[in-house]
Design a protein that fits this description.
It comes from Sphingobacterium paucimobilis HER1398. The chain has 573 residues and is mainly β. The chain is 6% helix and 53% strand. It contains 3 helices and 28 strands. The protein has helices at 2-27, 49-52, 354-360, and strands at 107-113, 117-126, 132-144, 151-164, 168-182, 201-215, 226-237, 243-257, 260-274, 285-300, 304-317, 321-335, 339-350, 373-387, 391-403, 405-410, 418-423, 430-442, 447-459, 472-481, 486-495, 498-502, 516-520, 523-535, 538-545, 553-555, 558-559, 564-572. The termini are far apart. Residues 1-101 have low confidence and may be disordered.
C-alpha cells in the first residue's frame, strides 16, 4: 500500500509538469519570437542589498568631477553638524564689519608728468535701466620731447548709447578726435645742416559716427533668422588740402537649417579723397568706392565647421574694377576644446584710405596718389586651443599674393615728409609669407600673461625692400594683482631691423645721387604702471614709458619720446 502511494504520488507530479509544459507550448506561437512578455525563471527571487539600494533617495556622491575647485571663505567659521548626537542649534557668529562695494562706471582721471605731460579723462554712463545705457567721454593728452618742436597732443570726445528691445539691439557712438603734431624730423645735408627749417605743424580732425542694429538670440528658436545692419561714417581732414569723406553701409543675414547655416555679408563704402594727385583739376576729389557681397553656406558637424562661399568685389568711382575671389574655411576639432586645426583660402580688396594711412604715419606729404591693394590669393592655416580658463594659444601661417601694396618712402625733395610707393602692379605680385602666434596664460588669480609674435617676409616685385616693415615683431603684457588694492601692469614691444629708402643731399639741399638703403635699427620698448586704491572710489596711479630711455625711430628722422613718467589720481562715482 505504501509503495502504491509513493508511485501514485510520483506519477501525479510528472503529470502535473507535463500538463504545465503542454499549456505553455499551447500559448507559444512558433511563428513569433519570444518577446519581453516571456519570462525565464531560473531561481527564486530573494531581495539582496544590491537591489535594495536602487530605491534609495540619497544622492550618489561617487559620480563626482575629477577636479573640484578649492574654495576659501575668509573669516566665515567652519561649523560642522555633529550627526552622532542629533541636530544642534546653530549659533549665529558675528562677522567683521563689511561694506557693500558700489560698482560704478563713472570716473574722472587727471595726471601730470615730465616732458610737459598733462592727462585728463572723464567717462560718464547712465546704467540705471536694464535695457538702456547711454553716456559720454572726453580725453586730453599732450607731451613735448627734447627735440625742437617735438610736440604731440590728442583730444577725444563722444556720446554713446545702447537700447535693447525684444527682437534686436541698437547701439551707436558719435565722436570727435583731434591729433596735433609737427614735422620735427631732422634730415641733414653733407655739412650737417638741417633740411627742415620750418617745422610746420600738422593737425588731423576726425568727426565720426558708428551705429549698429543686431538681432537678439532667441533660445526658443535656434533656427530663426539672425541679421545685422551697420553704418560707419566719418569726415577726416588735415591742416592742408588733404581730406576724406566716407559712408559705409554693411549688414549680414544668416539662416540656420539644422546643421547648415546659409547667409551673406553685404557692404557698400562710398568714399572720396581730397588733395590727391589722382585728379587732374586741383580741388577735385578722387572718388574711390567699393561694394562687395559674400554669400556663404556653412556646415557644422560634431567636431568640424566647413564654410564655402565667394567674395565678389566691385570698385567704382573714378576707376572701376570687378573681381571674384574664393572664400573657404574649415575648422576641425582634433581634441575638443584643446586642439583645433583650421585653414582656408580667400581674397579681397583693401581700400586706400587717407585716414588709415595718416594714423599709421602722420607725417605724409601732400598731393599723394592713392591706390587700392588687392589680395589676389590668400592661404592660411594653423592650430588653436585652450586648456580651461588658464591657457590659450593660436599659431597661424599665411601666404598672400599682393597687388598694389602701399609703402612709406621719404620724399626725395622733402625728406622729412613721406610719399607713397606701390609695389606689385606689374605681372609680378608681391609674395608674402607670415607666421603669427598668440598666447595667454593665467597662472593664478594674481598673475596674467599674454604675448604676440609676428614674422613677416616679403618678396618684392619692383622695390628693393618692404620699407619700414620689420621682419620680426614681438609684443607682451603682464598684469599682477598684488592685493585687492594694488595692481601692476607691464608692456613690452620689440621691433626688428627695417630699412628706409633715403638720399644724400648737398649744401643746397639737392639729392646727390640715387637712393641708398638705410637701416632703421631694431628697438625694445618697456613700459610699466601701478595703481593703488586708497579708498573704494579713489585711486592713485603712476606709469613709466620707454624705461630704457632709448629714443628709437619707427620712421626715419623721427625719434620717439625718451623716458617719461606720468602720475595722478582717478575718482569713480
Amino acid at each position: 500500500m505504501k509503495l502504491h502511494k509513493t508511485v501514485f504520488k510520483n506519477y501525479a507530479i510528472v503529470a502535473l509538469l507535463l500538463g504545465a509544459g503542454y499549456q505553455g507550448y499551447a500559448q507559444q506561437d512558433p511563428t513569433k519570437p519570444v518577446t519581453i512578455d516571456s519570462f525565464d525563471v531560473v531561481r527564486d527571487y530573494k531581495p539582496i542589498l544590491a537591489d535594495a539600494v536602487k530605491i534609495r533617495r540619497s544622492p550618489d556622491m561617487s559620480n563626482k568631477r575629477s577636479y573640484m575647485p578649492k574654495l576659501s571663505y575668509g573669516n566665515v567659521p567652519d561649523k560642522k553638524l555633529d550627526i552622532n548626537t542629533g541636530l544642534k542649534e546653530l549659533n549665529v557668529q558675528e562677522l567683521p564689519f563689511t561694506k557693500t562695494q558700489d560698482i560704478s562706471s563713472n570716473y574722472v582721471k587727471v595726471g601730470v608728468g615730465n616732458l610737459g605731460t598733462i592727462l585728463g579723462e572723464a567717462y560718464i554712463a547712465v546704467e540705471d535701466y536694464e535695457d538702456l545705457r547711454f553716456g559720454g567721454f572726453v580725453k586730453h593728452l599732450n607731451q613735448k620731447g627734447s627735440l625742437d618742436d617735438q610736440k604731440f597732443s590728442r583730444q577725444e570726445a563722444g556720446l554713446f548709447g545702447r537700447r535693447i528691445l525684444s527682437a534686436f539691439t541698437v547701439d551707436g557712438v558719435l565722436g570727435y578726435n583731434r591729433y596735433g603734431t609737427r614735422f620735427y624730423g631732422v634730415p641733414v645735408d653733407v655739412n650737417g645742416v638741417t633740411l627742415n627749417k620750418e617745422h610746420e605743424d600738422q593737425v588731423f580732425n576726425d568727426i565720426y559716427f558708428k551705429g549698429e542694429l543686431t538681432s537678439n538670440f532667441d533660445p526658443a528658436n535656434e533656427e530663426a533668422f539672425s541679421y545685422s545692419a551697420k553704418v560707419d561714417a566719418y569726415t577726416y581732414k588735415d591742416k592742408f588740402d588733404a581730406s576724406e569723406n566716407s559712408l559705409a553701409l554693411s549688414g549680414y543675414l544668416n539662416k540656420r537649417l539644422r546643421t547648415f547655416n546659409v547667409g551673406a555679408n553685404v557692404a557698400v563704402d562710398v568714399n572720396s579723397i581730397g588733395g590727391s594727385s589722382n585728379v587732374v583739376t586741383k580741388g577735385d576729389k578722387f572718388s574711390n568706392s567699393i561694394a562687395n557681397i559674400n554669400p556663404y553656406i556653412s556646415l557644422r558637424g560634431t567636431n568640424y565647421t566647413l564654410t564655402l562661399g565667394a567674395n565678389i568685389v566691385s570698385e567704382f568711382g573714378d576707376s572701376t574694377r570687378f573681381n571674384v575671389f574664393p572664400s573657404a574655411e574649415v575648422d576641425f576639432s582634433l581634441v575638443p576644446s584643446y586642439i583645433h586645426l583650421f585653414g582656408g583660402i580667400t581674397g579681397g580688396v583693401q581700400k586706400a584710405s587717407f585716414k588709415s594711412l595718416s594714423q599709421k604715419n602722420p607725417y605724409l606729404n601732400r598731393d599723394l596718389e592713392y591706390q587700392n591693394m588687392v589680395e589676389r590669393l590668400s592661404f592660411f592655416g594653423g592650430i588653436k586651443g585652450n586648456a580651461g580658463a588658464t591657457f590659450g594659444y593660436k599659431a597661424k601661417v599665411m601666404y598672400k599674393a599682393l597687388e598694389g601694396m602701399p609703402l612709406f618712402v621719404n620724399s626725395k625733395d622733402r625728406p622729412f615728409q613721406f610719399d607713397l610707393a606701390y609695389d606689385g602692379n606689374g605681372d609680378d605680385k608681391v609674395k608674402y609669407l607670415g607666421i603669427e602666434g598668440e598666447i595667454n596664460i593665467r597662472l593664478s588669480e594674481l598673475v596674467n600673461l599674454g604675448g604676440r609674435l609676428n614674422i613677416d617676409n616679403y618678396t618684392m616685385a619692383q622695390e628693393q625692400e618692404a620699407w619700414f616693415t620689420p621682419k620680426l615683431r614681438l609684443a607682451a603684457n603682464a598684469r599682477f594683482n598684488i592685493s585687492e588694492k594694488l595692481y601692476i601692469d607691464a608692456e613690452a614691444l620689440f621691433h626688428g631691423l627695417s630699412y628706409a629708402k633715403a638720399y644724400e643731399y648737398d649744401a643746397n639741399g639737392a639729392p646727390l645721387a640715387a637712393y641708398k638703403k638705410e637701416s632703421v635699427p631694431e628697438f625694445f620698448d618697456l613700459s610699466a604702471g601701478a595703481e593703488y586704491k586708497a579708498l573704494s572710489n579713489l585711486g592713485i596711479f603712476v606709469k613709466a614709458n620707454n624705461i630704457f630711455n632709448k629714443e628709437y625711430q619707427q620712421y626715419l628722422y623721427y625719434p620717439k619720446l625718451g623716458f617719461n613718467v606720468i602720475g595722478g589720481v582717478n575718482f569713480s562715482f
